[in-house]
């Protein structure tokens, strides 16, 4: 879509480009009020799609990739936590070893 740079939302500020992560419109960009969802009291609910609607196949692919990425991020988080726990156990064992040897 061809938007004029002087576009102003209902509360008088230029809207910002955001990305939707809903199931129906994953990855689709839209213009929204920069104050929406913030504590700014005079925010409006300005909303307009920036991208044309994606074909349903594109939505399916994007959702699949998003789920895959989320799953990998969870696995990575678990691995980092496991490494931290193993590191703590290793340090405790080293301290215990020297404590028992030096007694
Ligand atoms: Zn606004």
From TrEMBL:
<keyword id="KW-0472">Membrane</keyword>
<dbReference type="InterPro" id="IPR010666">
    <property type="entry name" value="Znf_GRF"/>
</dbReference>
<protein>
    <recommendedName>
        <fullName>GRF-type domain-containing protein</fullName>
    </recommendedName>
</protein>
<keyword id="KW-0479">Metal-binding</keyword>
<feature type="domain" description="GRF-type">
    <location>
        <begin position="9"/>
        <end position="53"/>
    </location>
</feature>
<dbReference type="Pfam" id="PF06839">
    <property type="entry name" value="Zn_ribbon_GRF"/>
</dbReference>
<keyword id="KW-0812">Transmembrane</keyword>
<keyword id="KW-1133">Transmembrane helix</keyword>
<keyword id="KW-0862">Zinc</keyword>
<feature type="transmembrane region" description="Helical">
    <location>
        <begin position="81"/>
        <end position="101"/>
    </location>
</feature>
<keyword id="KW-0863">Zinc-finger</keyword>
<dbReference type="GO" id="GO:0008270">
    <property type="term" value="F:zinc ion binding"/>
</dbReference>
């Amino acid at each position: 879509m061809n938007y004029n740079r002087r576009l102003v939302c209902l509360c008088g500020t230029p809207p910002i480009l955001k990305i939707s992560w809903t199931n129906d419109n994953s990855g689709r960009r839209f213009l929204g009020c920069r104050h929406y969802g913030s504590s700014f009291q005079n925010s409006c609910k300005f909303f307009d799609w920036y991208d044309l609607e994606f074909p349903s196949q594109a939505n399916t692919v994007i959702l699949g990739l998003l789920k895959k990425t989320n799953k990998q991020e969870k696995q990575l988080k678990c691995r980092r936590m496991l490494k931290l726990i193993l590191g703590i156990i290793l340090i405790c064992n080293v301290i215990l070893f020297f404590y028992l040897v030096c007694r």
